[in-house]
Amino acid sequence: MKIVRRIGSLFIVVGIWHLCSIFKVPFLGNIPSPGEVMDEAIRYIPGARYFQNIVFSMVRIYIGFFLGAVVGVPLGILMGWNKKFRWLTFPLFEILRPIPVIAWIPIAVIMFKTTEQSIWWLIFLGAFFPIGLNSYYGTSTVPLDQVRAARSLGASRKDLLFKVILPAAAPAIYTGMEISMGLTWVILVAGEMVSGGWGIGYMTWEAYILVTYPRIILGMLTIGLCGWSFSTIIRKVADISMPWRRLF
Questions:
Q1: What is this structure's pTM?
Q2: φ and ψ at 89, to 5 degrees?
Q3: Are 68 and 101 in contact (CB under 8 A)?
């Protein structure tokens, strides 16, 4: 019963989509019907290329996102924890953050020898800034009374960081990870469309060039499912590491 409730909205959307296709509703009526997309999935998914594209995209996401988190979380915590470090790094961080990731493509081509490394770099940037900013705000906005209470009980600076600051900042850090996960998929698809070769983004763009419109929808749905799975992993890790946050 829980599963039915959770996927009920999906059935409603598919039903509306199907009706729009039947009655040729303006704009929406031109989109391939659910039946056409299902037929394309039956033809295309059993082939090895579909799963190879997924593997290529997931590896790129894993590498770029992991590097962004490894650099962004400690940097954000240090900026929120240490005023001198914040004065030194935050102005540069804020200058670079508004630059669109797409604008980094020419620099990535110059910096790296291979297209694969360029895509990793772009995904890293997409993950790094949201994670770093959320880690900074999560650390710097910890209630002052909690810090004072810990100090009054004799907590050392190390205890204060690991037992008060990080647990209080953890929700903001995980929120930054979820936000950046959605952004990295956008960047990945754009990079794969430009670079060509392999990946879900390239598969979707290739379908457009070959006028295989149902495969475009299949590619979009695949991207959505992959992004959802990655975000679910982040939420599960957050639930495990923050059991006090699970109220419902």
A1: 0.84
A2: -105, -30
A3: no
Residue type at position 241: S
Q: Which DSSP symbol is given to 33?
A: P
77, 137 in Cβ contact below 8 A? no
Residue 167's closest CA among 134, 137, 142, 197?
A: 142
Reading the block at residue 240, the tokens are 């495990």
Question: Which are the contacts of 147, defined by CB distance < 8 A and separation ≥ 6?
Answer: 160, 164, 165
- At residue 31's C-alpha, the angle toward residues 26 and 34, to 5°, is 125
Report H helices in 32-165.
Answer: 34-44, 48-81, 83-96, 105-111, 115-140, 144-152, 157-160
Residue type at 64 in one-letter notation: G
Q: pLDDT tens digit string along 27-49?
A: 766 788 888 888 888 888 887 88
